[in-house]
Amino acid sequence: MRWYNEIHIILYTSVSISVRAKPQIVQLNGLKIEVFKTKIKIHDLHNDVSTIEAEKIVEYLYREGFIEKQSIICEILRTEEE
Q1: Are 42 and 57 in contact (CB under 8 A)?
Q2: Domain locations along the chain
Q3: DSSP E strand stretches across the chain
Q4: Could you give the CA distance from residue 57 to residue 65 in angstroms, rounded to a whole number?
Q5: Are 63 and 73 in contact (CB under 8 A)?
Q6: CA torsion sign, 55 to 34 to 39 to 78?
Q7: Which phi and psi (to 5°) does residue 20 adopt?
Q8: Could you read off the pLDDT of 49-69 as tens digits, one per residue?
Q9: Cβ atoms within 10 A of the Cβ of 74, count?
């Protein structure tokens, strides 16, 4: 049984998103992760973060108190392939 009610994983390739709230920056396993109140952005510079790894990151951030919501959006921001 998973601890969260709902998780959305969205994949982006080099997309700039305007955000008003200032995120908390977390470095985890070599990844830069921006933590907002209802959203997490994982910066995947090597294009190798799977949805399973993203779920584990969300679970870790929840357990450690970085996020409080059980319904959270998780965006994986990937670099463009050349």
Answers
A1: yes
A2: 6-78
A3: 6-13, 24-28, 31-35, 39-44, 71-78
A4: 12
A5: no
A6: negative
A7: -85, -40
A8: 999 999 999 999 999 999 987
A9: 20
Q: At a CB cut-off of 8 Å and minimum separation 6, what does 67 contact?
A: 35, 37, 40, 58, 61
Give the separation between CA 20 and CA 11, rounded to whole angstroms: 21
- pLDDT tens digit sequence for 4-36: 445 566 665 555 555 467 899 999 989 999 999
- Farthest CA pair distance, the chain: 40
Q: Retrieve residue 77's tokens.
A: 């921001």
Are the CB atoms for 75 and 39 separated by under 8 Å?
yes
Q: What is this structure's pTM?
A: 0.72
Q: Rounded distance, CA 54 to CA 50, Å?
A: 6
